[in-house]
Task: structure prediction
Amino acid sequence: MKIVMLGAPGAGKGTQAKMIAEQYQIPHVSTGDIFRANIKNGTDLGKEAKSYMDKGELVPDELTVRILLDRVAQEDCKNGYVLDGFPRTIPQANVLDEELTKLGDKIDFAINVEVPDENIVKRMGGRRACVACGATYHIEHVPPKKEGICDKCGEALILRDDDKEETVKNRLNVYHEMTQPLIDFYNGKGVLKEVDGTVDPSVVFENIKKILG
Ligand code: AP5
Ligand code: MG
Result:
């Protein structure tokens, strides 16, 4: 099963992708998480990605595509994966499509998590993220058991550098311009599914499970 998560920044792609990955025993592949892990480890890739991410801009397609294709070529992705934050531009989607076609394969579901912009800005300030394992919390909606500590791996939680209000607004603009066209792209391929992302995360997940079967 190969799944793409679509939706604005903060729509809950990561939250849902983690649950899908657990339920269906497939890897959760997030380009954002890969970049953040590289930033944390001070790699060259991390340094380059950070210069874009901090402004809320997209990391260039060429670099992002290379990272993603390397990741999905790994053994654990053989039986499927859930992509979170990739593709994010039409050129990225085309490359993925071409690579899958070469393998006689395709994306089975593109799930668009719908949340209006007004809700997003409010959500982001409360988000806390674990850079070690990729888990995501919210101080009100999804609090960790112990404040500031990841339930899953015990590492300290961070407020992401790109969750400042001004940066969030730019990320939303970039989303509408560059990423929203992917909704039509996957609709044209007959694999688009829409879910309401404004309800409780567990309810969003129930609705996704109905789609995936
Ligand atoms: P990335 O890490 O992918 O960020 P994003 O797309 O902006 O999405 P977020 O991770 O902010 O939101 P999410 O939808 O995963 O929501 P979450 O589940 O955390 O990318 C970061 C940057 O990396 C980009 O700006 C770009 O620079 C670069 N990048 C990454 N991929 C790239 C690519 N392919 N090409 C180019 N550049 C790329 O939820 C948000 C908050 O809401 C959390 O606190 C959560 O607990 C809470 N929440 C979740 N669901 C609900 C709910 N139903 N109700 C209430 N609260 C909820
Ligand atoms: Mg995310």
About this structure: Residues 19 and 38 are 24 Å apart (CA to CA). The pocket of magnesium ion (ligand 2) is lined by residues 13-14, 30, 32, 84-85 (CB under 6 Å). The mean pLDDT is 96. DSSP finds nine helices and seven strands in the chain.
